[in-house]
Design a protein that fits this description.
The protein is 11% helix and 47% strand. It has one domain: Barwin-like endoglucanases (Beta Barrel), CATH 2.40.40. Strands 2-6-3-5-4-7-1-8 form an eight-stranded mixed sheet. It has helices spanning 30-36, 95-100; strands at residues 2-14, 17-19, 25-29, 43-48, 54-62, 69-72, 84-94, 104-106. The longest helix is centred in the N-terminal third of the chain and has 7 residues, at 30-36. It is mainly beta.
Length: 116
């Protein structure tokens, strides 16, 4: 039996930009992606601390060291620049493996989106 478990979490980053006319997705600073073990095109869940919205989208690699968190396309309607969000990805694995699996959780500075 397989179960879905938390794989990666970027806890409390601030949305820096919003681009409603983009095709879709969330752009994340490549430093944050590396630290959280996320890859481009990976499916993520985004939870908005400010308004309670939840959405699923996919990751686009942002400029390394920029602190970018950009909500693109329809996701831009669910957040505003300055909103604090949590970004999570999940993995499917064997039940026994899942019992000992440890997700990667990073806690960047909420004001700069930089790893502390």
């Amino acid at each position: 039996m397989n179960v879905e478990v938390l794989k990666s979490k970027i806890h409390r980053v601030t949305v820096t930009e919003s681009d409603l006319n983009y095709v879709g997705s969330i752009t994340i600073d490549e430093d944050l992606m590396d630290a959280a073990n996320l890859i481009e095109n990976e499916k993520v869940q985004v939870v908005n601390i400010n308004n309670g919205e939840r959405l699923e989208t996919y990751v686009i690699t942002g400029e390394r060291g920029s602190g970018q968190i950009i909500m693109n396309g329809p996701a831009a309607r669910k957040t505003a620049v300055g909103d604090v969000i949590i970004i999570m990805s999940y993995a499917s694995m064997d039940f026994e493996e899942a019992k000992t699996f440890k997700p990667v959780i990073i806690l960047p500075d909420t004001h700069t989106n930089k790893i502390i």
